[in-house]
Amino acid sequence: MSEAKRQDERVRTRNPLQAALSRPSAGAIIATIIAFLVFTWPLWECVGDAQACTANGFLTPRGISNWLEVAAQVGILAAAVTLLMIGGEFDLSVGSMIGAAGMVLALSIAEFGLDPWMAALVAFGFALVIGALNGWLVTRTGLPSFIVTLGMLFLLRGATIGITRLLTDRTQVGGLREFTDGDMFVQFFAGDLIIGDFSISASVFWWVLVTVVAWWVLTRTTFGNWIFGTGGNATAARNVGVPVRGVKISLFMATAASAALLACIQVFTVASADVLRGEQKELEAIAASVIGGTLLTGGYGSPIGAFFGALMLGMTKVGIPLASIPAEWYFAVLGIVLLVGVLLSNWVRRRGTGVRS
Amino acid sequence: MQLKKGLVGLITVGLLAGATVAPAAVLADGHEKDIRIEVVSHGQASDPFWSVVQNGVNAAASDMGVTANYSAPGTFDMVAMGQLIDTAVASQPDGIVVSLPDADALGPAIEAAVAAGIPVISMNSGSDDYAALGILSHVGQTEYEAGLGGGTRMGAAGVTKALCINQEVGNTALDLRCQGFADALGAVGGTSEVIAVDLADPAATQATVEAALTADPEVNGVLTLGPTGALPTLEALNSMGMTGEIALATFDLAPEVLQAIADGTMLFAIDQQQFLQGYLPIVMLTLHNQFGGLIPGGGGVVLTGPGFVTADNAEAVIDLSAEGIR
Predict the structure, then answer these.
(1) Is A357 among the domain residues?
(2) Which of A2, A229, A255, B111 could pair covalently with A80 via S-S, beta carbons 3.0-4.6 A apart?
């Protein structure tokens, strides 16, 4: 037997660049850097001239705080959605859940007089129940989660509009400021941290926290291995004793809870709830996950990648109007950027992992 | 690899196409100044009403020699719209124009703009809330009174039981229109019920209206709150063979609405002349920048409507509507 053949491939040394590129998040990081360069491109000529550098606002403290916040609102969802997608399922109902949980929160405060922290508990409880219901329906019926949660998307949105109209004759619940002003608990969701000229909103810290928790659970706990197993090959996972059904149900509860968290942030920040909040957010979260290297087929992905996917999306959404691209071209440009992001992420992953097609 | 380069190139071309050369306005002291005004509305690009506003913005920008950028969120999402306003503030423009459908949600973003020393004018919706936020002036129509006017005309036409078709549930201004309409009908012993529809889905809107009319045969009047509600409602009446039996009126104009009025299948349209809502704020903010803080009327509401289009004047308005001006 030759020397090469006896060497165990599990302990082989790899080229560090190859190792870095083989991480699921590599493509998203590169895509984020490219997006950053594209949207700061009009500023390149200003190097050394501080006045010109702030011309379109992308790199001003306010501009940076702005795209960080937009990214955070997608990223909070994307972290949980990524775990669920690695577990092999979709949740299309998170967008509607933002509207529903936000309305539960606002109605609890304005109509039923609960304290903000109690109302937030009710909203999270509501989300966890719906999430568990999603998971139970998917695992019980064996129907694709795409269909089950599509049903929930319409059901939640419709019920939110209907019940809110029934209770208040309106579709917006406003004037929450008189209940939330001066409340310390609310500051955890709506406050800003002022550092010099930067005003970083609480959502950015939640985004980082949720991402770190998702990363830790996925890569440092047994439960994380179960998620990979469930999404990679459910039958094999079940045969080695992974509680596949329980894993899926908890992941659906996690995505619903992330939507409830975003709903708390939105409602406490703007002091009103609207039945239409969160439309299309489910698709943005999936887009951020996929740019972040997560496979639609399950079993592969990274919350760190989703973090950068969301960051790229945030830069793009703020960068487009700042580049004075007319509003009617917004979706076209957003679509091109998304496609480029996914293609790039896919290409880097194939290169990095040595897959040739 | 080749494909990726091509796509990156496409984005660059898009950016270049978007970056227009800023024209200059002349200041009082004879100096030229590049004035840039950011317009953020809640009107989606697919809504014919808002494309007229956008035409007004563009016409005023070229007439005044200033740059105006128009943006709007992709769905009726006030959080996303607040972020667009934040983005506009970050670019430090010489003025911001906003529509104000939810003062609670948009308030903080607008107050930040005011605090940054940027003059802000609101248009279209928000006549009740603008002053408290530090907005200089409001250009629009007072919604309740416009609905009241519509209800009075409907009542005079003999309507006793009406539907109010709302395509933007959640927009305070539209709720007020329905309320004014109901109050005016109530004054002559009639009633009105609000029906919620989806402005992005004409087929579902038509089906909803047909169902509501079938469910209650006593309904003899329908008020829609914009062309996105009016056109499917016209179709619904057509397919049920009830055209002309039910008094139909709408807020806001579109070529098809005007044709229906000229044909007599529609009673009247309440016109808020939204071209002016795009045009006037640009003029006002330009003059405000040019001549040291000019603002008309001590910061009151500049009314652009309501005007009523009936069979008498419909023909004259048709040509302008086709050009996207009315």
Answers:
(1) no
(2) A255
